[in-house]
Amino acid sequence: LNRRLAEFGTTIFAEMSALAVSTGSINLGQGFPDTDGPEEVREAAVRALRDGRGNQYPPGPGIPELRTAIAAHQERRYGLTYDPDTEVLVTAGATEAIAAALLALLEPGDEVIALEPYYDSYAACIAMAGGTRVPVTLRQDGAGGGAADGRSFRLDLDELRDAVTDHTRLLLINTPHNPTGTVLTREELTAIAALAVERDLLVVTDEVYEHLVFDEAEHIPLATLPGMRDRTVTIGSAGKSFSFTGWKVGWVTASPALVTAVRSAKQFLTYVASGPFQYAVAEALRLPEAYFEEFRADMRAKRDLLAGGLEQAGFKVFRPAGTYFITTDIRPLGESDGFAFCRSLPERCGVVAIPNAVFYDHRERGAPFVRFAFCKRTGVLEEAASRLKTLA
Ligand code: PMP
Ligand code: GLN
Predict the structure, then answer these.
(1) Does ligand 2 lie within 6 Å of residue 292's CB atom?
(2) Where are the transmembrane segments (predicted)?
(3) pLDDT of residue 10
(4) Ligand 1 centre and the CA of 392: distance in Å?
(5) Beta pairing partners, 328
């Protein structure tokens, strides 16, 4: 293994899912739903397979039906207009979109600012692209902290501004944010946009949880802010929005120049992927608003169920405004090392979770935080909550 990748080892998701299987634990670690997405979408995939649509290499940028559906979705929801022929690219999940964007847009030595804690593929992809990551920590307390208005894991805008240097090429943003559940506000996004314009930065924005925002939170795509449309690569995922994480269908929307760049890298990573599933996802994107409302309401109820269980078990719970993850603080349980806690949890009570420290460069800042996924059936969450209560 080369020096660029050596520090990353095995992704925590593989490690923890294997631990769940080997110990027969409830897996609240890796973020995947235990209920598949809509039946009509599955049927659409079966029809495509049977009719021989997509069983051979689909077009490099993605099938026209899907690119049109992605553009229509962005316009309907956010008023963002993209030309399906030149401004939309279908990828092998959001994971490939992130990799291809970074490989295409970074020169060796370019600095990339990412919100810490960050999804684990960011660091590895920045490294593979020869870039340097510059983490800006979302603060649970202190400057920019959530104490004043009850919101946790806030972006400190001064810290973000100070992180920009002459070598900064790109801001890698994620909202709604995995693993903290923070949803960036219009005010924060406006400041990010102003900074990007002022310092002439590109922005890659991972919005895979765009449909999972709760209560008063609103998902605002960064590309909708002034000056951003043509410097922003926006990333979405059918795995997250329609609960088909195994299909690996994701997408990019951006200006023609940026889409062309991302596609240049993408063509040599996978060329294309997910043939028949692309037809099905095109149908999924056209589902009526009721689907998205129900999806949100269902996940919100699950959030409340698991958050309540975790609170009763003695965790400090940071109730997420978005995503299907809850970050907790284990210190009220008399614990301080999330890694050790997560490694012992299966044996102690038959539940698997993720230590947030893996998402930090400043490991000590993430040490007491542990993430639980709530995209699971109600009975599973209830059982997990009752097992966790035995910890106290
Ligand atoms: N970005 C974030 C923030 C994620 O949480 C995930 C999935 N866990 C991805 C990207 C990857 O999405 P996909 O499965 O579509 O590759
Ligand atoms: N995005 C999912 C999570 O954060 C997992 C994706 C993966 O396993 N690579 O848990």
Answers:
(1) no
(2) none
(3) 85
(4) 33
(5) 317, 370
